[in-house]
Amino acid sequence: MKYLLFVIFLFIIIPGDAQFMSSQAQSFVDPTGTYILKGKFTKSELKGHYGEIRVKLLDSSSIAMTFYMNSGYPAYFDGFFIDTLNYDGARAAFSCRGGNYYKIAFRFTRDEVEISQAYMDPHYSCSFPKGVIFSGFIKKYSGNIPVIKSLRGDFLRPNG
User: Fold this and answer.
1) Chain CA centroid to CA 77, Å
2) Amino acid 16: pLDDT
3) Which of 11, 87, 99, 125 is surrounded by the most beta carbons within 10 Å?
4) Mind listing the pLDDT tens digit for each residue in 38-87?
5) Burial of 120 by CB count in 10 Å (0-12 exposed, 13-18 middle, 19+ buried)?
6) C-alpha–C-alpha distance, residues 87 and 81, integer Å
7) Residue 18 CB neighbours (<10 A)
8) Mean pLDDT in the chain?
């Protein structure tokens, strides 16, 4: 009788675990690719944020990322980083070292990345100029493996 209960228990538990594991495998997103945020030209000035994010999946738990963002007209403040980030299958985060808490979070889907920021002090932003980091969604431009390099020199100010 105990053996029969054990077998029934296994048939109940194993399919549940298999379903759980398959849902975990389905939720894994390969973020490899290039994501581009385009500003809009108005009277020869680039208004709104623009930038590019390149991501390469290194293994199931880490990605290489190069990030460039510009605030657009009138200041054209920019910020950038190149780093290897921990990856949990759909999310990664960049945080700087220092006394204040500041984090840029990335949540990947098959077609886009969502960027959000978390901080303790709104005046502290990992040495990024104020207003540079865009919070929102950026569409995936390409799923090809990108070159991970500094992007800062690739973007020039309009008219300069």
Assistant:
1) 20
2) 41
3) 87
4) 988 887 887 888 999 999 999 999 999 999 999 888 888 898 999 999 99
5) exposed
6) 17
7) 10
8) 80
What is the residue type of 37? L
DSSP secondary structure letters along 123-152? T--TTPPTT-S--EEEEEEE-SPPP-S--G
pLDDT for the residue 127: 76
Residues 6+ apart with CB under 8 A from 32: 55, 56, 57, 143, 144, 145, 146
Query: What per-residue confidence (pLDDT) applies to 110?
Result: 95
Q: List the structure tokens of 119.
A: 């901080």
The answer to whether residues 70 and 52 touch, using CB atoms and an 8 Å cutoff, is no
Q: Which residue has the tokens 């990856």?
A: 87
pTM of the shown model? 0.76
| Of residues 33, 22, 27, 23, the one with CA closest to residue 57 | 33
- Give the residue ranges of DSSP H helices in the chain: 2-27
Angle in degrees, CA 25, 31, 33, rounded to 5: 145
For residue 111 the two structure tokens come to 């077609």
Residue spans of the domains in the chain: they are 1-28, 33-154
pLDDT at residue 133, rounded to an integer: 86
Cα 124 from Cα 126, distance rounded (Å): 6
| Cα(12)–Cα(64) distance, integer angstroms | 41
Identify the pLDDT of residue 50. Answer: 92
